[in-house]
Write a sequence for this structure.
């Protein structure tokens, strides 16, 4: 009986060790795959991103929002603007896109610095080919009201690719870019509209845009773009 007991204990220990080996092996494979996926993202400009974001976001910090000056209805209408903007861009509804901006609305984008709904539409339309199979998502909304009454909302922009992999022809959804959106909003004829939309600190997946020089240029802040373009 003692021999059988020893034999069962040995077999049980072996099974436990085998299970641990499988778990460790699986974890190693998953970690390797995660690192491989991470390596496809552009990191050439990332060391400064957190510092830039902290400095950039201070004025819009949730601790300094004063958003209680707005009604619940106002806040909901303001928070809906980024989603309507993204839907208009993704579905090519350009009349609706232009109508989201005030008469003298301004777009400060990696693609250009333009003013008026018509000019904004022209800029977006000129990059239609870049936006095929791309979906835009705005998250982490934070609304701020400055002492002068200026209402601003910031959020993270995430762009996802939902097209097919050219090599395999199968669906290959993944994140292609992320950045920060800052919406300055105003009421025009009783409706909240975008007075200014700034896209800042955009990081693009190197798998989608191999040219590092272009990626670095896109990753520049709005302030850096203004200096580069002679607007500062």
């Amino acid at each position: 009986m003692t021999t059988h007991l020893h034999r069962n204990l040995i077999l049980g220990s072996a099974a436990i060790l085998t299970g641990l080996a499988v778990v460790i092996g699986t974890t190693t494979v998953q970690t390797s795959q995660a690192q491989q996926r991470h390596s496809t993202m552009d990191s050439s400009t990332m060391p400064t991103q957190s510092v830039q974001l902290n400095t950039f976001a201070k004025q819009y910090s949730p601790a300094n929002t004063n958003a209680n000056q707005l009604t619940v209805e106002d806040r909901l209408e303001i928070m809906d603007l980024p989603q309507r903007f993204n839907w208009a861009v993704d579905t090519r509804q350009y009349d609706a896109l232009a109508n989201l901006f005030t008469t003298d609305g301004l777009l400060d984008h990696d693609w250009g610095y333009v003013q008026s709904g018509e000019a904004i539409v022209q800029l977006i339309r000129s990059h239609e080919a870049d936006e095929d199979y791309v979906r835009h998502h705005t998250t982490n909304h934070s609304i701020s009201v400055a002492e002068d009454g200026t209402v601003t909302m910031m959020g993270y922009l995430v762009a996802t690719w939902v097209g097919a992999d050219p090599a395999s022809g199968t669906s290959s959804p993944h994140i292609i870019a992320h950045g920060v959106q800052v919406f300055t909003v105003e009421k025009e004829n009783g409706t909240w509209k975008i007075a200014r939309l700034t896209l800042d600190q955009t990081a693009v997946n190197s798998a989608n845009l191999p040219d590092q020089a272009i990626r670095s240029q896109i990753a520049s802040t709005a302030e850096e773009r203004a200096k580069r373009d002679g607007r500062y």
In short: Helices lie at 2-39, 49-57, 72-90, 94-99, 117-125, 212-218, 222-228. The domain at 43-228 is CATH 3.10.450.50 (Nuclear Transport Factor 2; Chain: A,). The chain has a mean pLDDT of 77. The longest strand covers residues 174-188.
